[in-house]
Amino acid sequence: MRRLLGPALTILLGAAFVALIGWLLHQQPSPAAVAVPHQGAADSHHVYLHLATYPDSMAGEHGKDGGAEPDWVSYGPTTTLNVPRHSLVTVTISQYDGGEAITNPWFARVHGTVGGSETVDGKTVTGVDPEAVGHTFTIHAAPTAQDPLFVSVPLPAVPDEAPPAAGSDYPKPIEVTFSFRTKGPGKYVWNCEFPCGDGTYAKFGGPMSTRGYMSGTLTVT
Ligand SMILES: [Cu+2]
Fold this sequence. Notes:
single chain; six-stranded mixed β-sheet; 1 helix; alpha+beta; 221 residues; Immunoglobulin-like; binds copper (II) ion
């Protein structure tokens, strides 16, 4: 019995930690201006989202001066996403940031998208090199009464030596596109699963654990 207690306790503590992170993500206030970045398409059941990942927070929802933490990596233009129910959602992410080896190579694979794939600069792939990941976009669904929604796509790293693009502070981005289908209405959280935060919590601190940088909400309306 005592021998079983150790692993059981570990699992329990792990589950409690995951629950705590989920609760913390839900507790942080959303940005005041709640943007609805999906553009109305000709077919109302197919919407588009355009996001970007930056090596700092000067281009997203924190304003041009970067707000409180200008050096933190961020998603933009907003981390508050709204998409309609029973729809096809096509997301394009312009990835401007560098990266390195991902801790968990499972997140270097594509999960939960239409066709189980994404395109990287136009090329269809089911995963990227786990040694060169910039960020991931990972929608989580806690087991609740709402419809499950799990999508995770890796965003390859922009090479460190890439020069800034003309007229930009950032290099030419890597364009990642994928689609997923929504079911019924629900509230979900998403985050990056590449530990790109500060040194606390195995690099899951700072921008990784603060709403509006490497995490946000996705509301299916
Ligand atoms: Cu990240």
